[in-house]
Queue: 2 jobs
Job 1
Amino acid sequence: MWADALAEQLNQDIARLYQEADDYNVKITVGEEPNVHTFLAHSVILRARSSFFRAALSKKWQNPQEDDKIIFKKPNIDPKVFRIILKYLYTGTITFYQRNDYISLLIAADELDLIALVDHIQDYVITSDNKWLLRRLVEVFQLCTQFQSFSKLREYCVQTISGNPQSFFKSPEFLSLDENSLVSLLQRSDLAMEEIDVWDEVIRWGKAQLPHLNTDPSQWSRPNFKALEKIVRQCIPHIRFLDISSTDYHKIIPFIEILPDELRKNLTGRHQESQTSAPVSPAASPGKLIPAQAASMSSILDSVIINRKHAALISHWINGKEGEPDSYRSCHYDFRLLFRGSRDGFDVREFHAKCDRHGATVVVIKINDTDEIIGGFNPVSWSSSGYYRNTTRSFIFSLGNGMNTRNAILSRVSKRQSSFAICDYGLGNLEDSVGFGAGDLPLFGFKAKRASYQRSVISPTAFNIAEFEVFQVTKRLDAKT
């Protein structure tokens, strides 16, 4: 305790130098005309706090001096931003005066090698001002691809984009995305998006870089196609053409000239073969046809809780697999909404009226306050039978807050407890007797206990539901396992 008090006193004494000292030995001029300001500082503080200043103010640099003060210039940092950083160097505290400071502060802190400050700003934006972050998602993501130290923001952006790519690609700012940032997205296997939509967005982005082109490609000349081909050349190898249905081939035809010869031949041959039900020809490089992992999800996922990436993960588990799928850009099952609490009422009677006798279903629940997403897969129909249903294929799960699927929890029914896998009691029974296991995930009881499944998926055991959805899941006819 005494040591903490002494350390706090030391911090206060050093912080006092920021405002009260008269023995500064460094003059730092920052900014460009007309926005230029000169700050006074102590070299010992700057060098102790920043490895950049430790090198920049060393004798090796031979900085000019004036009136026994080292003269240092930093024209590429805004004076307002440097004032915040200088206060941080002396006091260890930081104040965000405007939201627009975030990006400028991150860039300046990175240049001055203030790793702890870079991490703090990222944590603050993600946890305390993520609404701002979501509004500036394209700009921030593009920035993160340029700075290695912005790894926390980059991971947040990637998880947000991959789970709901449509809103990202449809934002007006998407068309200003640089090529490297776009390619880094296309390389990801967890981008929950139809491959034909990926193609459409790549073409739309490419055309936006050539605003002089006619909007109708049928009016283009060969040099026009050549110009577009040059723009999207690095994107093409990362589009999984074998995941594009032959029924969508008409969207590729207008731009077929921009594809490499071998890829064009493969696509044309595949389309012709599909018309005669012939086998698909193998992929080829350079612009290789990336093998389809599974069929893509044809319908729009009607959910306010989960996104397409979550649906692909749950589909992977339904197929008996563990962990994460190799690719999130495809899905084996269609999800058809049967029931939503906020729409149909959080009532067991409505649940049975809308969900009974619809075959296999997935239940997803969003928890109040924590925003946790939990749920379960029932491979047998809800039927108000009044009994426990026996199955070895059911499971319950947690997707955490939905942002990072790597933290998801999968809990399959215990083999010895499979007779209690599904609690299918009907009307007239206790409401908490509908759900998964002997209390593992009651759908209307709001209190869970581990009994029939391998792991618990929610803590604490009592919970309140913010939203509740049930989907009928049907395997796609063209799905591969």
Job 2
Amino acid sequence: MMGLDKMEEKLPVLQKPADKRTRAAVSGGLSTVMGTRLGQMASSGVGLALSRSESWVEHNLPLSERELGQ
């Protein structure tokens, strides 16, 4: 069985705090997914949904006091 010191020597990422390892893993995974055709389609769909929801909000919700004052 490999000792902890040997593992840390072979895998320096283990010496980083857990939150940085998690962020790096998530970021790397997202980059990989977004590089695929499916990832691009998902991104496009999310962008379209956001655009439509913004249009709906602008059309259906009243202006705020700040917006009315401008």
